[in-house]
Every structure is written in C-alpha cells, then in structure tokens.
Amino acid sequence: MAASRPPRTRPSRAETRRRVLDAATAVFARQGIAGTSLNDIAAEAGLTKGAVYSNFDGRDDLVLTIMEEHVVDRMGAATAVFDEIADLEEATAEAGARLLSGIGTDATWHRLLLEYWGLAMRDPAIHAGFAERRARLREAITRAIRKAAGARSVELPLPAEQLAVVILALSNGLAVERGVDADAVPETLFTDVLRLLITPRPA
Questions:
Q1: Which CATH number among 3.40.50.2300, 1.20.1640.10, 1.10.10.10, 1.10.357.10 corresponds to the domain 58-198?
Q2: CA–CA separation, 35 and 150 (whole Å)
Q3: Is 40's pLDDT higher than 50?
Q4: Once rounded to an integer, what is the mean pLDDT over residues 2-30?
Q5: Do 70 and 76 touch, CB atoms closer than 8 A?
C-alpha cells in the first residue's frame, strides 16, 4: 500500500500577505514602481492576482504599506534607545547612529521613496494616501520624543511635532546626499545634528 501523503496545508493569511509584500519589494526594486503591475507581483510571489487583491487594495496600498513598515521598523529601533539608555545625550547619539546605519544600507528603499514622492506630487489621488501615512508616521515619532523628554523632565527646544518633521526630513535628505556622494556625509553627522535638536542647552 502506498504511503499516504500528508494533507496539504494552505498558507495563512499573514503568510500570504508577507509573501506579497516581499515580492512587491523585490519587483519594485528591479523595475521601479511605475513599471510594475500587480501581475508582476503575483508572478514573483507565486500567487494569483486574486490573492494579491485579497490582501491589498492595489499597487498604491502595497507601496504605502511597504514604506510604513520600513520606516516604523527603522524609527522604532532608533527611538527604543531612549528606553534602553537613561542619559539623554548618550541615547541621542545611539539613535543617530542607528538611523545613519539605516541610511547606509537602505539605498534601494530610499530610491523607491523618492519615486513615489514624485508620483504623489503629480497625482492628487496618490498624494492623499501618501500624506495620510506620513502624518501617522510623524505622530508616532512625536509620541516617542514626548515620552523621552517627559521621562527625563527635559524641556525641548522646539515642539515635539516640529522635531518629528525635522528628523524625518533630515533622514531623507541625508539619504539623498549620501547616495550621491557618501564622503559628503560623515558618520557622525546625523548624531551631531540630533544632539543640537534634542539636547537641552543651558539658559
């Protein structure tokens, strides 16, 4: 008697969603966002187009989810140091080092961010979703800054929500400059600027 085959298990919804996101990231990196279709992503993932649509509304939803995951992971790793290190200046230095490390290793992701920014500036429908996700990201960073300052009874030199905008802009701007000329962005630059922004100065 032939041995019975174990029953085939279907991937969970979470596993399918992860496969789609990983496939989309790979195809976007190779072909760019504008040059990628949902069929391309489904083929890369080894899934049907219907499986992609069952997890995401479309290409824009995929792009925004990938961006949000990436930035939340990076910023989460950076802001976690304020729970790990009590000294504000030391924690700020480590946060800057983690963010700069991300800039150095995520060139592909920053190219995708710039491409999608360009698409959003030309298409109001794309712009609305992009703006909403960026607002949520700024709110998360604002909360982390307020928590770090409050735990140390520190008065910030600027409102936390403005510091969040500056930190995001600094991260993106340094990524562009480092991509063009790595030597123009010293290893300590992010840390030095964060210290100026966050570390309180004597009156």
A1: 1.10.357.10
A2: 46
A3: yes
A4: 83
A5: no
Going from N- to C-terminal start, the domains of the chain cover 12-56, 58-198
47-77 per-position pLDDT tens digit: 999 999 999 999 999 999 998 888 888 888 8
The 8-class DSSP code of residue 154 comes to P
Q: Are 88 and 148 in contact (CB under 8 A)?
A: yes
Tokens 């946060």 map to which residue? Answer: 95
**DSSP letters spanning 73-133:** HHHHHHHTHHHH--SHHHHHHHHHHHHHHHHHH-HHHHHHHHHHHHHHHH-HHHHHHHHHH
% of the chain at pLDDT higher than 70: 93
74 C-beta neighbours (distance < 10 Å), count: 18
Measured CA to CA, the distance from residue 169 to residue 188 in angstroms comes to 17
Half-sphere exposure of 127 (CA within 13 A, CB side): 6
